[in-house]
Amino acid sequence: MIDFHPRRRTLLMTGAAAALTPLAGPVRAEARRFEPQPGPWRQFELTTTVQVAEPQGLTRLWLPVPDVESVYQKPLDNAWAGNATQARLVADPVRGVRMLYAEFAADVGAPAITLVSRFRARDRAVDWSQPGRVSEDPAVLRTCLAPTELLPLDGIVHQTAQQATRGARTDLDKVRAVYDWVVANAYREPKTRGCGTGDIKAMLETGNLGGKCADLNAIFVGLCRASGVPARDVYGLRVAPSAFGYGQLGAGSARLQGAQHCRAEAFLKGYGWVAMDPADVLKVMRHETPEWIKDPKHPVVAPVATGLFGRWEGNWVGFNTAHDVRLPGSVAKGTLPFLMYPNGENASGRFDELSPDSFRYTISAREITA
Fold it and tell me: For residue 43, how many other CB atoms are within 10 A of its CB?
Protein backbone atom coordinates (compact mmCIF):
# COMPACT_ATOMS: atom_id res chain seq x y z
CA MET A 1 0.00 0.00 0.00
CA ILE A 2 1.29 3.46 -0.88
CA ASP A 3 1.33 6.02 1.93
CA PHE A 4 0.21 9.28 0.36
CA HIS A 5 0.81 12.87 1.49
CA PRO A 6 -1.52 13.88 4.34
CA ARG A 7 -2.50 17.25 2.81
CA ARG A 8 -4.63 15.65 0.11
CA ARG A 9 -7.55 13.30 0.36
CA THR A 10 -6.27 9.96 1.60
CA LEU A 11 -8.72 7.85 -0.34
CA LEU A 12 -7.06 5.49 -2.83
CA MET A 13 -9.38 4.71 -5.69
CA THR A 14 -9.13 1.14 -6.92
CA GLY A 15 -11.83 1.40 -9.57
CA ALA A 16 -14.04 3.83 -11.39
CA ALA A 17 -16.94 3.36 -8.99
CA ALA A 18 -15.08 4.02 -5.74
CA ALA A 19 -16.75 6.27 -3.19
CA LEU A 20 -15.57 9.87 -2.90
CA THR A 21 -14.86 11.96 0.20
CA PRO A 22 -17.87 14.18 0.99
CA LEU A 23 -17.70 17.95 1.34
CA ALA A 24 -17.07 19.36 4.79
CA GLY A 25 -19.59 22.11 3.96
CA PRO A 26 -21.67 23.11 0.94
CA VAL A 27 -20.51 25.56 -1.69
CA ARG A 28 -23.50 27.58 -2.80
CA ALA A 29 -23.50 27.49 -6.59
CA GLU A 30 -25.94 26.57 -9.29
CA ALA A 31 -25.44 23.58 -11.54
CA ARG A 32 -23.76 24.41 -14.83
CA ARG A 33 -23.45 22.94 -18.29
CA PHE A 34 -20.28 21.80 -20.07
CA GLU A 35 -20.95 19.99 -23.35
CA PRO A 36 -18.44 20.80 -26.12
CA GLN A 37 -19.52 19.44 -29.51
CA PRO A 38 -17.69 19.49 -32.87
CA GLY A 39 -18.97 22.37 -34.95
CA PRO A 40 -17.70 25.18 -37.15
CA TRP A 41 -13.98 25.90 -37.26
CA ARG A 42 -12.73 29.05 -35.53
CA GLN A 43 -9.63 30.83 -36.82
CA PHE A 44 -7.09 32.46 -34.52
CA GLU A 45 -3.96 34.53 -34.85
CA LEU A 46 -1.39 33.96 -32.09
CA THR A 47 1.34 36.57 -31.57
CA THR A 48 4.48 36.06 -29.48
CA THR A 49 6.94 38.92 -29.07
CA VAL A 50 10.32 38.48 -27.35
CA GLN A 51 12.66 41.32 -26.37
CA VAL A 52 15.96 40.51 -24.68
CA ALA A 53 16.67 43.35 -22.26
CA GLU A 54 20.32 42.62 -21.45
CA PRO A 55 22.06 40.82 -24.32
CA GLN A 56 25.30 39.07 -23.46
CA GLY A 57 27.16 37.61 -26.40
CA LEU A 58 25.30 35.43 -28.89
CA THR A 59 21.56 35.18 -28.14
CA ARG A 60 19.42 32.19 -29.14
CA LEU A 61 15.63 31.92 -28.90
CA TRP A 62 13.23 29.00 -29.44
CA LEU A 63 9.50 29.68 -29.75
CA PRO A 64 6.85 26.93 -29.92
CA VAL A 65 4.52 26.93 -32.93
CA PRO A 66 1.18 25.16 -33.47
CA ASP A 67 2.33 21.76 -34.72
CA VAL A 68 -0.62 19.48 -33.99
CA GLU A 69 -2.85 18.58 -36.91
CA SER A 70 -6.00 16.71 -35.98
CA VAL A 71 -9.79 16.61 -36.15
CA TYR A 72 -9.78 19.52 -33.69
CA GLN A 73 -6.91 21.68 -35.02
CA LYS A 74 -5.45 22.79 -38.36
CA PRO A 75 -2.20 24.79 -38.33
CA LEU A 76 -2.14 27.36 -41.16
CA ASP A 77 1.11 29.34 -41.29
CA ASN A 78 3.84 31.11 -39.34
CA ALA A 79 5.47 34.46 -40.06
CA TRP A 80 8.08 36.41 -38.15
CA ALA A 81 9.89 39.75 -38.13
CA GLY A 82 12.64 41.34 -36.07
CA ASN A 83 16.39 41.96 -36.02
CA ALA A 84 17.56 38.35 -35.80
CA THR A 85 20.78 37.50 -37.61
CA GLN A 86 19.01 34.34 -38.74
CA ALA A 87 15.58 32.83 -38.08
CA ARG A 88 13.96 29.66 -39.37
CA LEU A 89 11.69 26.78 -38.41
CA VAL A 90 13.65 23.86 -36.96
CA ALA A 91 12.79 20.54 -35.33
CA ASP A 92 14.08 18.47 -32.45
CA PRO A 93 16.09 15.76 -34.23
CA VAL A 94 14.66 12.96 -32.07
CA ARG A 95 11.10 14.04 -31.21
CA GLY A 96 10.43 16.02 -34.38
CA VAL A 97 8.95 18.98 -32.51
CA ARG A 98 8.89 22.05 -34.73
CA MET A 99 9.74 25.49 -33.36
CA LEU A 100 10.99 28.87 -34.51
CA TYR A 101 14.72 29.30 -33.93
CA ALA A 102 16.14 32.84 -33.90
CA GLU A 103 19.78 33.73 -33.46
CA PHE A 104 21.19 37.20 -32.76
CA ALA A 105 24.86 38.07 -33.20
CA ALA A 106 26.72 39.54 -30.24
CA ASP A 107 26.64 43.01 -31.78
CA VAL A 108 22.83 43.14 -31.96
CA GLY A 109 22.06 45.67 -29.25
CA ALA A 110 18.41 44.84 -28.48
CA PRO A 111 17.45 41.40 -29.78
CA ALA A 112 13.74 41.24 -30.64
CA ILE A 113 11.45 39.04 -32.70
CA THR A 114 7.72 38.70 -33.24
CA LEU A 115 6.16 35.41 -34.30
CA VAL A 116 2.63 35.31 -35.72
CA SER A 117 0.99 31.88 -36.08
CA ARG A 118 -2.44 31.26 -37.56
CA PHE A 119 -4.50 28.15 -36.93
CA ARG A 120 -8.04 26.80 -36.89
CA ALA A 121 -9.61 25.06 -33.91
CA ARG A 122 -12.97 23.60 -32.93
CA ASP A 123 -14.61 21.68 -30.12
CA ARG A 124 -14.00 17.98 -29.86
CA ALA A 125 -16.13 15.13 -28.51
CA VAL A 126 -16.06 11.35 -28.85
CA ASP A 127 -19.29 9.52 -29.62
CA TRP A 128 -19.10 6.55 -27.28
CA SER A 129 -22.12 4.97 -28.97
CA GLN A 130 -20.38 4.75 -32.36
CA PRO A 131 -17.14 2.74 -32.14
CA GLY A 132 -15.53 2.02 -35.48
CA ARG A 133 -12.36 0.89 -37.17
CA VAL A 134 -9.50 3.25 -36.39
CA SER A 135 -5.79 2.97 -36.95
CA GLU A 136 -2.60 4.71 -35.95
CA ASP A 137 1.04 4.42 -36.94
CA PRO A 138 2.48 1.59 -34.79
CA ALA A 139 5.59 3.70 -34.18
CA VAL A 140 3.44 6.46 -32.68
CA LEU A 141 1.69 3.98 -30.40
CA ARG A 142 5.02 2.51 -29.29
CA THR A 143 6.24 6.00 -28.40
CA CYS A 144 3.06 6.58 -26.40
CA LEU A 145 3.67 3.40 -24.41
CA ALA A 146 7.31 4.16 -23.66
CA PRO A 147 8.85 5.70 -20.53
CA THR A 148 10.40 9.16 -20.59
CA GLU A 149 12.91 10.82 -18.29
CA LEU A 150 10.17 12.03 -15.93
CA LEU A 151 7.59 9.32 -16.71
CA PRO A 152 9.17 6.00 -15.75
CA LEU A 153 6.76 3.09 -16.00
CA ASP A 154 8.28 0.70 -13.46
CA GLY A 155 8.49 0.72 -9.68
CA ILE A 156 5.96 2.89 -7.90
CA VAL A 157 4.36 4.03 -11.16
CA HIS A 158 3.61 0.45 -12.17
CA GLN A 159 2.44 -0.39 -8.66
CA THR A 160 0.09 2.61 -8.56
CA ALA A 161 -1.28 1.81 -12.02
CA GLN A 162 -2.10 -1.74 -10.91
CA GLN A 163 -3.90 -0.46 -7.84
CA ALA A 164 -5.80 2.23 -9.72
CA THR A 165 -7.02 -0.16 -12.44
CA ARG A 166 -7.70 -3.23 -10.32
CA GLY A 167 -10.73 -4.99 -11.75
CA ALA A 168 -10.67 -3.07 -15.04
CA ARG A 169 -10.80 -5.41 -18.03
CA THR A 170 -10.88 -3.27 -21.16
CA ASP A 171 -8.65 -0.36 -22.13
CA LEU A 172 -11.65 1.95 -21.76
CA ASP A 173 -12.22 0.63 -18.24
CA LYS A 174 -8.56 1.23 -17.41
CA VAL A 175 -8.57 4.79 -18.72
CA ARG A 176 -11.78 5.57 -16.84
CA ALA A 177 -10.28 4.15 -13.64
CA VAL A 178 -7.05 6.15 -14.04
CA TYR A 179 -8.97 9.35 -14.80
CA ASP A 180 -11.15 8.93 -11.70
CA TRP A 181 -8.10 8.00 -9.61
CA VAL A 182 -6.30 11.21 -10.55
CA VAL A 183 -9.36 13.34 -9.81
CA ALA A 184 -9.86 11.64 -6.43
CA ASN A 185 -6.22 11.57 -5.28
CA ALA A 186 -4.38 14.51 -6.83
CA TYR A 187 -5.07 18.21 -6.35
CA ARG A 188 -4.32 21.57 -7.91
CA GLU A 189 -1.48 23.35 -6.08
CA PRO A 190 -1.47 27.11 -6.86
CA LYS A 191 2.09 27.58 -5.55
CA THR A 192 3.59 25.34 -8.26
CA ARG A 193 5.64 27.39 -10.71
CA GLY A 194 4.40 27.51 -14.27
CA CYS A 195 2.61 24.30 -15.21
CA GLY A 196 4.92 22.06 -13.18
CA THR A 197 7.47 19.62 -14.58
CA GLY A 198 5.63 16.29 -14.68
CA ASP A 199 8.04 14.38 -12.41
CA ILE A 200 5.53 11.67 -11.54
CA LYS A 201 7.99 9.32 -9.83
CA ALA A 202 8.91 12.00 -7.31
CA MET A 203 5.26 12.90 -6.77
CA LEU A 204 4.24 9.31 -6.12
CA GLU A 205 7.24 8.52 -3.94
CA THR A 206 6.74 11.57 -1.73
CA GLY A 207 2.96 11.23 -1.74
CA ASN A 208 2.70 14.91 -2.67
CA LEU A 209 0.19 14.76 -5.52
CA GLY A 210 -0.30 18.52 -5.72
CA GLY A 211 0.72 20.34 -8.87
CA LYS A 212 -0.52 21.94 -12.05
CA CYS A 213 -1.50 20.64 -15.47
CA ALA A 214 1.90 19.28 -16.59
CA ASP A 215 2.11 17.39 -13.29
CA LEU A 216 -1.48 16.20 -13.00
CA ASN A 217 -2.00 15.13 -16.60
CA ALA A 218 1.45 13.53 -16.57
CA ILE A 219 0.26 11.28 -13.75
CA PHE A 220 -2.71 10.32 -15.92
CA VAL A 221 -0.51 9.65 -18.96
CA GLY A 222 2.07 7.70 -16.97
CA LEU A 223 -0.50 5.49 -15.25
CA CYS A 224 -2.22 4.80 -18.57
CA ARG A 225 1.06 3.81 -20.19
CA ALA A 226 1.98 1.65 -17.22
CA SER A 227 -1.42 -0.05 -17.67
CA GLY A 228 -0.67 -0.84 -21.33
CA VAL A 229 -2.81 1.94 -22.85
CA PRO A 230 -1.11 4.42 -25.24
CA ALA A 231 -1.42 7.96 -23.90
CA ARG A 232 0.25 11.32 -24.40
CA ASP A 233 0.34 14.88 -23.14
CA VAL A 234 -0.54 17.68 -25.55
CA TYR A 235 1.23 20.92 -24.69
CA GLY A 236 -0.41 24.18 -25.67
CA LEU A 237 -2.03 27.48 -24.74
CA ARG A 238 -5.50 28.78 -23.93
CA VAL A 239 -6.47 31.47 -26.44
CA ALA A 240 -10.12 32.38 -25.67
CA PRO A 241 -12.67 32.23 -22.84
CA SER A 242 -14.80 29.16 -22.27
CA ALA A 243 -18.17 29.24 -24.02
CA PHE A 244 -19.73 27.60 -20.95
CA GLY A 245 -18.96 30.30 -18.40
CA TYR A 246 -16.15 28.52 -16.58
CA GLY A 247 -13.49 31.11 -15.82
CA GLN A 248 -10.87 28.44 -15.18
CA LEU A 249 -11.36 26.71 -18.55
CA GLY A 250 -10.35 29.56 -20.82
CA ALA A 251 -8.03 32.50 -21.28
CA GLY A 252 -8.74 34.99 -18.51
CA SER A 253 -7.25 38.10 -20.11
CA ALA A 254 -5.63 39.45 -23.26
CA ARG A 255 -2.19 38.72 -21.78
CA LEU A 256 -1.55 35.02 -22.34
CA GLN A 257 1.90 34.68 -20.77
CA GLY A 258 0.42 32.50 -18.03
CA ALA A 259 -2.20 30.74 -20.17
CA GLN A 260 -0.11 27.69 -21.07
CA HIS A 261 -2.05 24.48 -20.55
CA CYS A 262 -1.25 20.82 -21.04
CA ARG A 263 -4.07 18.45 -22.03
CA ALA A 264 -3.94 14.68 -22.50
CA GLU A 265 -5.13 11.95 -24.85
CA ALA A 266 -5.54 8.19 -24.66
CA PHE A 267 -5.73 5.85 -27.64
CA LEU A 268 -8.70 3.49 -27.42
CA LYS A 269 -9.57 0.74 -29.85
CA GLY A 270 -12.69 1.67 -31.76
CA TYR A 271 -12.33 5.36 -30.96
CA GLY A 272 -8.74 6.42 -31.70
CA TRP A 273 -7.24 9.32 -29.80
CA VAL A 274 -9.71 10.47 -27.16
CA ALA A 275 -9.61 13.83 -25.34
CA MET A 276 -8.82 13.76 -21.61
CA ASP A 277 -8.12 16.48 -19.04
CA PRO A 278 -8.32 15.49 -15.36
CA ALA A 279 -6.04 18.44 -14.55
CA ASP A 280 -8.74 20.90 -15.56
CA VAL A 281 -11.27 19.07 -13.40
CA LEU A 282 -8.96 19.66 -10.46
CA LYS A 283 -8.47 23.30 -11.48
CA VAL A 284 -12.23 23.89 -11.45
CA MET A 285 -12.46 22.18 -8.05
CA ARG A 286 -9.76 24.44 -6.60
CA HIS A 287 -10.42 27.81 -8.22
CA GLU A 288 -13.84 28.11 -9.86
CA THR A 289 -15.54 29.15 -6.61
CA PRO A 290 -14.15 30.99 -3.56
CA GLU A 291 -14.23 27.74 -1.58
CA TRP A 292 -12.14 24.73 -2.61
CA ILE A 293 -14.62 22.11 -3.81
CA LYS A 294 -13.60 18.63 -2.67
CA ASP A 295 -16.37 16.59 -4.29
CA PRO A 296 -16.28 15.88 -8.06
CA LYS A 297 -20.03 15.33 -7.89
CA HIS A 298 -20.65 18.94 -6.86
CA PRO A 299 -22.96 20.65 -9.39
CA VAL A 300 -20.23 23.08 -10.47
CA VAL A 301 -17.69 20.32 -11.03
CA ALA A 302 -19.76 17.34 -12.19
CA PRO A 303 -20.40 18.61 -15.77
CA VAL A 304 -16.67 19.24 -16.21
CA ALA A 305 -15.63 15.91 -14.67
CA THR A 306 -18.01 14.16 -17.06
CA GLY A 307 -17.28 16.35 -20.06
CA LEU A 308 -13.49 16.31 -19.98
CA PHE A 309 -13.53 12.54 -20.28
CA GLY A 310 -13.82 12.58 -24.06
CA ARG A 311 -14.34 16.29 -24.85
CA TRP A 312 -12.37 19.51 -25.29
CA GLU A 313 -13.30 23.09 -26.09
CA GLY A 314 -11.78 24.67 -29.19
CA ASN A 315 -10.48 27.69 -27.26
CA TRP A 316 -6.94 26.31 -27.02
CA VAL A 317 -4.03 25.62 -29.37
CA GLY A 318 -1.85 22.50 -29.22
CA PHE A 319 1.86 22.98 -29.86
CA ASN A 320 3.19 19.41 -29.65
CA THR A 321 3.03 16.10 -27.78
CA ALA A 322 6.71 15.53 -26.99
CA HIS A 323 8.64 14.86 -23.81
CA ASP A 324 12.44 15.17 -23.39
CA VAL A 325 12.83 17.91 -26.00
CA ARG A 326 16.24 18.99 -27.24
CA LEU A 327 16.56 22.57 -28.49
CA PRO A 328 18.48 22.53 -31.80
CA GLY A 329 21.61 24.65 -31.52
CA SER A 330 21.51 24.97 -27.74
CA VAL A 331 24.79 24.81 -25.85
CA ALA A 332 23.01 24.06 -22.57
CA LYS A 333 23.15 20.45 -21.41
CA GLY A 334 20.17 18.17 -21.03
CA THR A 335 16.62 18.22 -22.33
CA LEU A 336 13.45 20.13 -21.57
CA PRO A 337 10.59 18.13 -20.04
CA PHE A 338 8.41 19.70 -22.76
CA LEU A 339 8.27 22.75 -25.05
CA MET A 340 5.30 24.94 -24.11
CA TYR A 341 6.98 28.28 -23.31
CA PRO A 342 9.38 30.53 -25.24
CA ASN A 343 12.96 29.58 -24.40
CA GLY A 344 16.26 31.40 -24.78
CA GLU A 345 19.90 31.52 -23.81
CA ASN A 346 22.98 33.69 -24.15
CA ALA A 347 26.47 33.84 -22.69
CA SER A 348 25.02 34.03 -19.17
CA GLY A 349 23.08 30.78 -19.61
CA ARG A 350 19.51 29.66 -20.23
CA PHE A 351 16.72 32.17 -19.60
CA ASP A 352 13.95 31.51 -17.08
CA GLU A 353 11.00 30.72 -19.35
CA LEU A 354 8.62 30.97 -16.39
CA SER A 355 9.47 34.63 -15.79
CA PRO A 356 8.08 36.55 -18.79
CA ASP A 357 8.63 39.91 -17.11
CA SER A 358 12.39 39.39 -16.73
CA PHE A 359 12.73 37.32 -19.92
CA ARG A 360 10.56 40.01 -21.58
CA TYR A 361 8.06 38.16 -23.74
CA THR A 362 4.38 38.74 -24.40
CA ILE A 363 1.75 36.46 -25.94
CA SER A 364 -1.65 37.46 -27.29
CA ALA A 365 -4.32 35.98 -29.52
CA ARG A 366 -7.25 37.25 -31.54
CA GLU A 367 -10.04 35.43 -33.26
CA ILE A 368 -10.39 36.17 -36.97
CA THR A 369 -14.08 36.35 -37.77
CA ALA A 370 -14.14 38.01 -41.19
Answer: 15
Work out the average pLDDT over 221-238: 98
pLDDT at 171: 98
Nearest to 224 by CA among 266, 264, 268, 275: 266
CB atoms within 10 A of CB 370: 3
Q: How many residues does the chain have?
A: 370
User: Which phi and psi (to 5°) does residue 112 adopt?
Assistant: -155, 145
- The DSSP symbol for 173 reads H
R_g (Cα) of the chain, nearest Å: 20
Q: CA-CA distance, 84 to 49, in Å (whole number)?
A: 13
**Banded pLDDT at 252 (limits 50, 70, 90):** confident
Concatenated DSSP letters of 28-50: ------------S-EEEEEEEEE
Question: DSSP code of 348?
Answer: T
The pLDDT tens digits of the residues spanning 49-83 come to: 999 988 899 999 999 999 999 999 999 999 999 99
DSSP class of residue 79 equals: E
Backbone angles phi, psi at 262, to 5 degrees: -100, 130
CATH number of 124-320: 3.10.620.30
Phi-psi region of 245 (alpha: psi -120 to 50; beta: other; left: phi over 0): left
CB distance 147 to 337 below 8 Å: no
Domain boundaries, the chain: 42-121+327-368, 124-320
Q: Which of 199, 281, 206 is nearest to 34 (CA)?
A: 281
What CATH number was assigned to the domain covering residues 42-121+327-368? 2.60.40.2250
**Could you give the CA distance from residue 33 to residue 15 in angstroms, rounded to a whole number?**
26
Query: CA nearest 280: which of 254, 315, 230, 253?
Result: 315
Alpha-carbon span 162 to 227, nearest angstrom: 7
